[in-house]
Write a structure and sequence with these properties.
By secondary structure, the chain is α/β, with parallel strands linked by helices. It is 50% helix and 18% strand. The chain has a five-stranded mixed β-sheet. Strand 1 and strand 2 form a beta hairpin.
Length: 211
């Protein structure tokens, strides 16, 4: 493939990654027909390319753009958020908040065992330093996590280390607030009102008046 095809492959890969599209997106016949109509003779990247060489190239390209932003940032915030993969494996995502914005920097697999503060500390301390670079540790101004018991205990472990002793620890209560609202909506009086309002908004109007 020539330079133009390589650049089109790169743009197609970026569209897939940034749009969270399946790697098999270009195998769909209707999309292939559309691409062929726009650019006859161009064959979009395969699932294997999108999951392999192109992904590696785009990752290196993105890291080359993001790393200098971390280097030039006066302060760094670390955001930790637990989630699951498509295989239901538990992971802890690590985000870096800088003067230029917030970037996903990596994740650590948590495994199937019960998560304790000691386990998280051993998993995260070295990885965080590796992700941001040992020379950037002094820039870490804050950690933001949820407020589960393990995370609150993790704050104490991190605060006791020389690397992070000056950092602030910022609790994020969004999930707790969601659970609180869910519990409130299960109270009979609130539940009845909420159901009534929901039905009112989803019902089709019998007529439309234009004034």
């Amino acid at each position: 493939p020539g330079p133009q095809s390589k650049e089109l492959d790169r743009m197609a890969a970026l569209a897939v990654y940034t749009g969270c599209l399946p790697f098999s997106i270009f195998e769909r016949k209707w999309l292939q027909a559309f691409i062929c109509a726009l650019r006859p003779g161009y064959k979009p990247p395969s699932r294997k390319q999108l999951a392999g060489s192109l992904l590696n190239d785009i990752y290196k390209e993105t890291r080359a753009e993001v790393d200098p932003r971390i280097e030039h940032s006066e302060r760094i915030g670390i955001i930790l958020d637990e989630s699951t993969t498509i295989n239901s494996d538990r992971i802890l995502n690590v985000f870096i908040n800088t003067n230029s914005g917030c970037f996903f920097q990596g994740f650590t697999e948590l495994g199937a065992q019960t998560i304790s503060a000691e386990y998280l500390y051993k998993k995260l301390q070295a990885q965080i330093i590796q992700l941001i670079g040992p020379h950037n540790v002094s820039k870490v101004a804050a950690f933001s996590t949820d407020t589960c018991a393990a995370m609150e205990s993790l704050w104490e472990h991190l605060e006791a280390t020389t690397a992070f002793r000056n950092a602030l620890f910022v609790p994020c209560e969004s999930h707790s607030l969601q659970l609180l609202i869910k519990d409130l909506l299960e109270i009979p009086d609130f539940a009845q009102t909420h159901r009534g309002r929901s039905e009112e908004h989803t019902s089709e109007p019998s007529h439309i008046t234009i004034s």
